[in-house]
Structure formats: structure tokens, C-alpha cells
Design goal:
With 258 residues, the protein is mostly helical. 55% of the residues lie in helices and 4% in strands. It is globular.
Length: 258
């Protein structure tokens, strides 16, 4: 079979798929021992999912600009947020170098738009990954499953390109049923309203943002603060959440540890 992508891009793409496969295997595995905090068992899947998202974006950038593009002038690798932002800019304003993403596809503009939308949805999982890596905090299993399926949809879009199809023939699949999104939102609202711990509260708010029906292209100003408070909380406020209609009402000041 002729090679359709560069070796570094193939390595990153396959690394992304392997991390996704491990994420799915881990979330399906039997619990090893009784846990005092069930959240700890989900941090591994959260981390693997975040790695998979970053690596697939890196694969595209490396195919476009070369392997050194992932590095800063200092020699360190670019943060995941930078990788995703640069990839989104490419998809929003395509250049001839990324035509490999739409090789053999009739409506190229629409395909670029769909790739951009999927990547925009996925980038918010990287917000949660920081809490998983640094504080062993993770979203619910339902949210992880939702985002696994979002990533699989991105892979399916990529596989429509003739350049990618041969590398994405055998994608892992998750066999767990996905809960109705409204049920997931109601569960999270209950969790936030009944949270006794400031970290659980912040993680719940961020998790709610992850499953809102419409993800804005530009994140709200408070999101980065909520991300930090989920890792290093200082103090939090009381919120009132209602699902019908969905609303968030702040009743006390929110103090963030930055």
C-alpha cells in the first residue's frame, strides 16, 4: 500500500487511535478494588481521551508544516491549547497545504466547516484533562462516553479523505449506550445544586458547559477561571440551577484561586 501521509503524521495519528482505544478499554474494565471516590477511576480515561484529541490535531499540523512545527523556539512542545487553536484557524481559513483533508471530497468547504465544528466541540475536553492530570478529578462516565463518540465522529470525517481512509479503517468502537443529553444535564444540575465541596461544584459547572446543546466558538470569560478553580479551588459561591428553562443564577461572589 502506498504511503499517503508522512511517517511522523502517521505515527501521531496511530498514537491518537491507540490512546482512544485504551480510553474505551479502560472505561469498560471491571473495577479492580472498591474505591472511596469513584471519580478517581475516570481520570485515566479522561487523560487518554485528551491525549487522543491533541495527537490527531498534531498529526494534521505535522502533515501540513512538518514535525518541528509542534515545537516552540525554546525546544519545548507547544501546549495542547495552542495546537487546537492553530488547527481550528487552519480549518476556518484553509490553505492549499491542507487539501489532503478533503482529497476526493466533492464539497470541500462544507467538509472543512464540519471538521472545524467537531474540533471546536472536542477542545473543551482539554479543559477537563488538566483537572484529571493535576488533581485526579474527572467528569462523569456519561460525559466521557459522549466525548468519545464526538472524537469518533471526527475520525469518521477524516476517513472520508482519500489520504486518510486507509489509516482509519479499523477504529475502536464503544458498546455502551449513550444517555439522553437532557438526562445527563439534569443529573449534573442536581450534582451542582447539592455539591458540598467547592472542587466538585467547579467540576460540575465545567461539566455542564461540556454538554450544553450549543458550544460557542469563543469560550466565555468565566470558563478559564472555572477550569483553574476545579484544580486549585479557594472559595466558591452558591448557584441556583434550573433545567427548564436552563439557567444559572449567581447569588454570592465567586473567588478564584489563580
Amino acid at each position: 500500500m502506498p504511503r499517503m501521509l508522512s511517517k511522523p503524521a502517521i505515527r501521531l495519528l496511530e498514537g491518537s487511535i491507540e490512546n482512544l482505544s485504551l480510553c474505551i478499554e479502560y472505561i469498560n474494565r471491571p473495577q479492580r478494588i472498591p474505591l472511596h471516590d469513584q471519580m478517581s477511576s475516570l481520570t485515566v480515561s479522561t487523560g487518554l481521551l485528551g491525549i487522543s484529541i491533541e495527537l490527531v490535531a498534531s498529526a494534521i499540523l505535522v502533515q501540513t508544516y512538518g514535525e518541528k512545527y509542534l515545537q516552540l523556539p525554546s525546544g519545548y512542545y507547544k501546549p495542547a491549547a495552542n495546537i487546537i487553536d492553530e488547527m481550528k484557524q487552519l480549518l476556518k481559513n484553509p490553505i492549499p497545504k491542507i487539501d489532503f483533508l478533503v482529497q476526493g471530497i466533492h464539497d470541500k468547504s462544507k467538509h472543512f466547516q464540519m471538521l472545524h465544528e467537531k474540533l471546536t466541540e472536542l477542545q473543551f475536553m482539554l479543559k477537563i484533562r488538566a483537572a484529571a492530570v493535576h488533581a485526579a478529578r474527572a467528569p462523569s462516565k456519561d460525559i466521557i462516553i459522549i466525548y468519545i463518540n464526538k472524537l469518533l465522529k471526527l475520525f469518521n470525517l477524516l476517513s472520508q479523505s482519500e489520504k486518510f481512509s486507509s489509516y482509519l479503517m479499523y477504529l475502536p468502537q464503544i458498546q455502551i449506550d449513550i444517555k439522553n443529553i437532557n438526562v445527563v444535564i439534569d443529573d449534573l444540575i442536581y450534582q451542582v445544586n447539592n455539591s458540598k465541596d467547592k472542587s466538585d461544584f467547579a467540576a460540575g459547572i465545567l461539566s455542564l458547559f461540556l454538554v450544553l446543546p450549543e458550544i460557542p466558538e469563543y469560550q466565555p470569560d468565566w470558563l478559564s477561571s472555572i477550569e483553574r478553580v476545579s484544580v486549585a479551588p479557594k472559595e466558591y459561591c452558591q448557584w441556583s440551577l434550573k433545567s427548564e428553562p436552563f439557567s444559572v443564577v449567581k447569588t454570592e461572589p465567586l473567588y478564584i484561586s489563580i
